[in-house]
Design goal:
- The protein is α+β, with helices and mostly antiparallel strands.
- The protein has a domain of about 55 residues.
- A four-stranded antiparallel sheet has the order 1-2-3-4, covered by helices on one side.
- A hairpin with a 2-residue loop joins strand 1 and strand 2.
- The longest helix is centred in the last third of the chain and has 15 residues.
- The radius of gyration is 14 Å and the shape is globular.
- The N and C termini lie far apart (about 35 Å).
- The model has no long low-confidence stretch (mean pLDDT about 90).
């Protein structure tokens, strides 16, 4: 039998808006006691951090720090990518 349960999502998941653009902060358990951080833009492109975080709050803080220091544009594509 295959286990098809979804990973546990953090209650800290949220949409973050800056400068008229937004990303969805998706934070979920990695199955090994850590948390995965993914930012999804309005074109459904995602940025997933390679490093996992000790807590879901650490993951959210990393996303907020990235947006504060580098701007939201580093997480938002200029258009939706389509395969050839």
């Amino acid at each position: 039998m295959t286990d098809t349960t979804e990973p546990k999502r953090s209650p800290l998941c949220q949409t973050i808006e800056r400068d008229g653009k937004s990303v969805q902060a998706d934070i979920y358990e990695d199955g090994a006691g850590g948390w995965v951080l993914e930012a999804v833009d309005s074109f459904n492109n995602s940025t997933v951090w390679d490093d996992h975080f000790k807590t879901d709050k650490d993951a959210l803080d990393e996303l907020l720090d990235t947006i504060e220091q580098e701007g939201i544009d580093v997480l938002v594509a200029t258009e939706s990518w389509q395969p050839n």
